[in-house]
Fold this sequence. Notes:
By secondary structure, the chain is of the alpha/beta class. 31% of the residues lie in helices and 22% in strands. The chain is built from 12 helices and 16 strands. It has a 7-stranded mixed sheet with strand order 6-5-4-7-8-11-10. The longest helix has 27 residues, at 276-302. The two termini are 36 Å apart. Bound molecules: thymidine-5'-diphosphate.
Amino acid sequence: xxxxxxxxxxxxxxxxxxxxxxxxxxxxxxxxxxxxxxxxxxxxxxxxxxxxxxxxxxxxxxxxxxxxxxxxxxxxxxxxxxxxxxxxxxxxxxxxxxxxxxxxxxxxxxxxxxxxxxxxxxxxxxxxxxxxxxxxxxxxxxxxxxxxxxxxxxxxxxxxxxxxxxxxxxxxxxxxxxxxxxxxxxxxxxxxxxxxxxxxxxxxxxxxxxxxxxxxxxxxxxxxxxxxxxxxxxxxxxxxxxxxxxxxxxxxxxxxxxxxxxxxxxxxxxxxxxxxxxxxxxxxxxxxxxxxxxxxxxxxxxxxxxxxxxxxxxxxxxxxxxxxxxxxxxxxxxxxxxxxxxxxxxxxxxxxxxxxxxxxxxxxxxxxxxxxxxxxxxxxxxxxxxxxxxxxxx
Length: 394
Ligand code: TYD
């Protein structure tokens, strides 16, 4: 495979096998035409970048049926409110603000009452419509050179560009950074948050790898990539979201750099996060994790225990398909998203049910697929008396 930034050939170090679209929840009559791709991952040591080899075209994933809504978690709503407070230091009362992948407008909502001009880019039509209904200026388009080139009010005049859990979705990082460059003012700031490679290795949460997550970033990789384009990573702040993320603050070269940057990069060098060898170790841990979870599920079944899944996350698609866990193991997966309910999970075709069904048909054990929302979910389900489990520590 070719590195998407440097064009250098890199060998995939691991395959997770055939994978469907992670958010491709389907009806029975679509089973026979389901799309699969081989999910392999590779690592470019030159820029310390962990990346997917092949991946479906973005249009296959982010379309008018995209079933992910930021507002589905109260915790995330609070997180975005705090995030909006954090970035206020980078703007003036009349600054222009852009969000890449603005989803249902949960983040930008925090700026609509101000004098700032705002634009959200959201390619998934159904989610963009919700944002527009809530009066959040939204362009139903991918963020790229073509979609920004005519935004005269914003070209070189945008003081803040934000993104959350979306930069890793964009295959052409070169064009992304060039588009950011077109918009950003001289002292402008680009802030983005992404799941952290270090947390994924530490927790062996390989379910962070799926079609939409083309890259898994670290401070080392972000710093090296942006340097190529005359930008600098000026600060980096760990976040608890998605089981461990980093918030990256990028400015044009020549700005003051916080000591947080060198501290995290030194730490990453110490644990080998910038080396292929840590990926090879991760591969072994994924294989062990698969054996462990299958042993656990098989032993529940041997003892006559029933199992359901909680939250039909995108992440669960990787677990279910890599471990070959199907409806013989798990009776159903409950979820709050109306677009998923009544459909079947991608690849393994486990039925998706609503929360009412879960409360009326409780199983002995529950596989928590949204382990990153554990606190919020345990709080909601404190009357469930069975056993929670997951492939990561709960
Ligand atoms: P999340 O871990 O944020 O997403 P993903 O892995 O898909 O990126 O989980 C979002 C999914 O979890 C979404 O389908 C809604 C579901 N969910 C529930 O069903 N109940 C809950 O309490 C929470 C927090 C999420």
